[in-house]
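Q: What does the predicted 3D structure of NarG-like domain-containing protein look like?
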Amino acid sequence: MATLLNLIALLSPFVLVIGIGMKFFKISRMPLNIRWEIYPLPSAKRERCQGSYMEEVDWIKKKHEKGLFGEFIEPFKEIFFLHRVKKFNLYGIWTWSIALHWGVWLLFLWNILILIAFVSNSMNLSKIIFLPYLSCFLGIVGTVGLILKRINNKELKLYTSGIEYFNLIFLFVIFISGLLMIYRENSTLEALLYVESVLSFNLSISEFHPFTLIHFLLFEIFLIYIPFSKFFHGPVKFFTFHKILWDDYYQKKDSPEEKKILQQLNYKVNWAGPHILPEQTWLENARNTNLHEK
């Protein structure tokens, strides 16, 4: 059992990184999305921030410049403040959602600090012991709030699948186990010893309190689970922002994008509708102007 726990602890960060890399590769190979081209773009230069560069005279002769500052700020606001949830969500989940997300961020931060403290042997974690307490408090409040919201709101309940309840309960258990672990005396020292035992591949179950073993095991399973679950929605936002919301480059002849578009136009439509020619290509459907004769 100790060997299995040690392997899970060592492999979980690698599974997380490799899994995310594989997902990014898979998504990058998918067919092109339809661009939204909703202005203003955060990447637009300040002098034309309300519209497209294609509105300018002789835009084709000019260099297409983008403001990188806006492209960094906008994802930052979304990741750490969920400003789109606060602005557009109709069900009032922002308070609980921001609490849950910050609980997760602080949980990752605390585990990173434990690793840094072990490697450097110079960080005094006792001075920032409030971080895991804050993480667990926010995580518990957020998960409970979101579960109750989804149960009690009839409309929101329709959009909530069983896996979403499972994910929230899973996070709730992680935060509860973390609270039980850090509430004990010398829990920080035990966490450092756990890291040392794992890295030296000398983990002994009898040396650690069950709460410590349970919490770290749950967190390691969480790392493995992230790339293959809905928790992966965060990294995927890179494609949503940069390839759908903000991509406004014009089409060039013989570019890789044009080749992809031509390939996709030859896909056959395998569904029916009053405006669709089944088993014909998208290009043939787009050229069909005699819908009334169908």
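A (community wiki): The structure tokens above were generated from the sequence. The radius of gyration is 25 Å. The mean pLDDT is 88.
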